[in-house]
Amino acid sequence: MAQYMSDPVLFHGLILSQLMRRKAFNFKPGPGEANALSLCHSEVLHGIHRRFDDPLESCSDINIFSVQILAFHSAMRTDVAGSMPSQGPLDSLRGLNIYAARLDSVAIHFEGLRRMIEIRGGLANILLPGLASTIT
């Protein structure tokens, strides 16, 4: 358990998981819970992306676990606006549709998870206890 709690990205990911479960079971949100949810989601995203710059960390067990958390919990997020931004007269350029609009984050995270596992050489090469079994 210490390994899970000593990594700041995974720590925020585990808190994100619990907050999303509370939401899924319709628990009454506590004060600041929506802010905590957004903060944890942001910390996990930024942490994963920072690790992608390091070849040794990019497909580490901890980073794979963090991406798995995003993949399974992104579908439950309702705190992100769903409408596309208006571009006014520049609508035909569709720049915001490409760069600033919401993409299907669930599909993106699952595809990223699949590729990370592929780069590692398959589930058999994941050493973090319990991680491979939760992915299958």
Structural class: mainly alpha
The quaternary organization reads as single chain
Mean pLDDT equals 80
Total beta strand runs: 0
Describe this structure in words.
The structure is a single chain. The protein is mainly α and 136 residues long. It has one domain (2-77, 87-135). It contains 7 helices and no strands. It has helices at residues 2-6, 8-24, 33-51, 61-73, 95-99, 105-120, 131-135. α4 runs antiparallel to α6 (105-120). The longest helix has 19 residues, at 33-51.
Quick recap:
The chain is an all-alpha fold. The protein is built from 7 helices and no strands. The longest helix is centred in the N-terminal third of the chain and has 19 residues.
Q: Which properties best describe this structure?
A:
mainly alpha, 7 helices, 136 residues, 59% helix
Helix/strand layout:
Layout: H1 2-6, H2 8-24, H3 33-51, H4 61-73, H5 95-99, H6 105-120, H7 131-135
Helix pairs in contact: 2-3, 2-4, 3-4, 4-6
